[in-house]
Specification:
By secondary structure, the protein is α/β, with parallel strands linked by helices. It has 9 helices and 15 strands. It folds into 2 domains: about 160 residues, Alpha-Beta Complex (Quinone Oxidoreductase, Chain A, domain 1), CATH 3.90.180; about 130 residues, Rossmann fold, CATH 3.40.50.
Length: about 350
């Protein structure tokens, strides 16, 4: 008898956003791509919602180390329904609802800005109870990134955590998770409105990084304490200012570079406070590590009664406009509705 889990090639095409080469978002166009098939350890997911991340744009612009085969399909986050399973898959079946954790999807393999995507079964997880599909499509990449940034140097007890770019996707996730861990959270954002919202999400203090006195204000607030860990999503000249706020054995997790390269700084400031600097890359998680980190994230969010923030949802045909919204710096994720 034929193994019903042996997925054969589809004979029809699917609709997808195709990146024809490096050079920015202008290289994107809607077109048709071959339907994916599942390898032995994969499933095919019918995409309902996908979310946008700055890394998608970076890849399109050639600022990302990946060099996929073109035309390429961007998109790393998604939620959908399993439509086919590989012969070795035992954890999922056709009809299951799932969202994507850490994987090469959208980086070195075709991504989620398409009607269907092939995903390793080990990199899928069930939609969390009580979440909307839009939230499930938005959360994994930013929350896993934030979790790695907060934990990569080991456990901290009742620490002071500074988050730059706190109103962005990883920033919001970092504020929520750090607060749920019991830390004192300081968030930096240029917007008065967003700073107020961050305080509602768990930030004890919020400051404007364009205020030349922000470092003085944080030191006044903390008294004898100093920042133990900084989650830096911005880079640029702000990086040196963030270093100045760190105390003895301070740590900084480098997540993003929205403000560009970090200018030269005096490394002597690192020596005497034994400051450690570490990069953050969710791609270094193994599937098992990503699953464990995700369960830790869900536990923290549940304890804090917190959920992901969704800014807006866009029709599939409006991906370029959705990237425009992402570039405007919304507080919450930008979601693409793929299903009709």
């Amino acid at each position: 008898m034929k193994d019903t889990k042996d997925t054969k090639a589809f004979e029809v095409d699917m609709k997808a956003w195709l990146l024809e080469g490096l050079g920015g978002l202008e290289k994107l166009k809607v077109g048709e791509a071959a339907m994916p098939t599942a390898k032995a350890d994969e499933v095919v997911l019918k995409v309902d919602f996908a979310s946008l991340n700055p890394a998608d744009r970076y890849l399109a612009e050639g600022q990302y180390p990946a060099r996929p085969t073109f035309p390429h399909i961007l998109g790393r986050d998604a939620v959908g329904t399993v439509t086919a399973v590989g012969a070795a898959v035992t954890t999922l079946k056709v009809g299951d609802r799932a969202c994507i954790l850490r994987t090469e999807v959208g980086v070195n393999t075709p991504g989620t800005f398409a009607e269907f995507v092939a995903v390793p079964a080990a990199s899928l997880t069930a939609v969390p109870t009580g979440w909307t599909d839009e939230q499930a499509a938005s959360a994994p990449l930013v929350y896993l990134t934030a979790y790695q940034a907060l934990t990569q140097f080991g456990a901290l007890e009742k620490a002071v955590v500074l988050v730059t770019g706190a109103s962005g996707g990883v920033g919001v996730a970092s504020v929520q998770l750090a607060a749920a861990m019991g830390h004192t959270v300081v968030g930096l954002s240029r917007s008065d409105e967003k700073r107020k919202k961050l305080e509602g999400l768990g930030a004890s203090l919020t400051l404007d990084p364009h205020d030349t006195q922000w470092r003085k204000r944080i030191k006044e607030y903390l008294g004898q304490r100093r920042v133990d860990l900084a989650v830096d999503n911005i880079g640029g000249s702000l990086f040196s200012e963030v270093l100045d706020t760190l105390g003895m054995n301070g740590r900084i997790s480098c997540v993003g570079r929205l403000a560009g390269p970090v200018p030269s700084f005096n490394t002597a400031g690192l020596f005497f406070r034994r400051i450690r600097i570490g990069g953050v890359a969710v791609g270094t998680y193994t599937p098992a590590e990503a699953q464990a980190a995700w369960q830790a994230v869900l536990k923290l969010l549940s304890q804090a009664k917190a959920q992901p923030l969704v800014d807006s949802m866009w029709p599939f045909e409006k991906l370029i406009e959705a990237f425009g919204r992402l570039a405007s710096g919304p507080m919450g994720k930008v979601v693409l509705q793929v299903k009709g």
